[in-house]
Amino acid sequence: MADSGRDGRTGPSPADLLRRLLPRLADFGITRLGDITGLDRLGIPVMQAVRPLSLSNSVAQGKGATAEMAALSAVLEAAECFFAERVAQFDVTEASGTSLAVDPARFLRHVTADCPPGWADTDIAWVMAEDLLSPVRRPVPLALVHTAYTHPAPRQDAWFEASTNGLAVAGTRHDAVLHGLLECFERDALAGAQRRHGFFQRCRIDPATIGDAGLNELIETLRAAGLLVALWRAQAKGGVPVIWCHLLEEDAHAGSLVPFPADGSAAGLDPAAAAVRAIREAAQSRLAAISGAREDITRLSYPRYPDWDMIEAHRRLLRDGPRPVHFDSLITETGSDWLADLLARGAAAGLSSILVVDLDTAPFEDLAAVKVFVPDLEPLGEG
């Protein structure tokens, strides 16, 4: 969900959409919408939506420029998994990939190590997707779309990397597809950055080259609160700007609540707006750790004996490390229709397809939910 302007979306305003959804939170299974902003000292609004019967995370988080925008972000985050976990609502075909003329190589990046080599000859559940780069509709394994994460996972689900990557809900289908596609570009860029030797030294953005007043003001506010703020450019297909942010306590003795760097990332054709969203997501990550409410933040995130030497080395990197990237190098020519621009960039970058599965949003007829799946992009291995 968008949390600031300059994001390419064209649907209803966040205030209007939130006003319509608040009386219907129970229809999503949301029992509580909580403001956790005050658990940290940064002042960046972060909200939590609690959905106890979720088949994925029971706690969804949202951030934004205001409490209202953060609340909407949290509600739509919860709504994504709500719509995607309703497996009975999908129009499913049971067939083998071979009988559907599916090339198994298309899903090579998205199968698990346990996936049998001949999986395409076995009948599994498929759903049909629109290909935004061609007039052809293509099948996608249901396991790559739904979020009904049960344990143990059904045998065929375990063959594919479960991921919420590309899952999006918005007031219009255009905005949902845009959000999901941007997330696909973002996660692929981060997956590549994690493999790149010397990424943190070679791709750091020089904050002195940032000319956007709102972004500079946000950075200065966090610095005044005693945080080190670092931004990196991650390399995305088609030159889509992707920003990765780390926040870390400047004073090693002040980091007892969050001793590790908190990170956030965002993609967008406006790099300044993307950087703002990345910073807000990093602030949200801090509050996720502080609140301890997310099931996916396990005991491993709170070691009794942290590696303080490694943390201090990262602090030195954030404080004194090289900053070779000029912010203006991220600015690209773009039209008024961000989605059309992204599709053109994807085609020019050689992507074979950009697939969109529409999810049933009943009884919320004023919402659109999609799963965007780009076979050539990596999902960052998230669950």
CA distance, first residue to last residue: 18 Å
Q: Overall mean pLDDT score?
A: 93
Q: Count of DSSP E strands?
A: 12
Rounded radius of gyration (Å): 21 Å
Uncertain runs with pLDDT below 50, 5 residues or more?
1-5
Beta-strand fraction estimate: 15-25%
Query: Treating each run of at least 4 consecutive H or I residues as one helix, how many helices?
Result: 9
Shape: globular
Spell out the helices and strands N to C: HHEEEHEEEEHHHEEEHHHEE
Q: What do you see in this structure?
A:
There is one protein chain. Helix 1 crosses helix 3 (67-84) and helix 6 packs parallel to helix 7. The protein has helices at residues 14-21, 25-28, 67-84, 173-195, 199-202, 213-224, 271-291, 308-320, 338-348; strands at 32-35, 46-50, 59-63, 93-96, 123-131, 137-141, 167-170, 227-234, 242-249, 262-267, 355-359, 368-373. Strands 4, 5, 6, 7, 11 and 12 form a six-stranded antiparallel β-sheet that branches. The chain has a three-stranded antiparallel β-sheet with strand order 1-2-3. Residues 1-5 have low confidence and may be disordered. 30% of the residues lie in helices and 18% in strands.
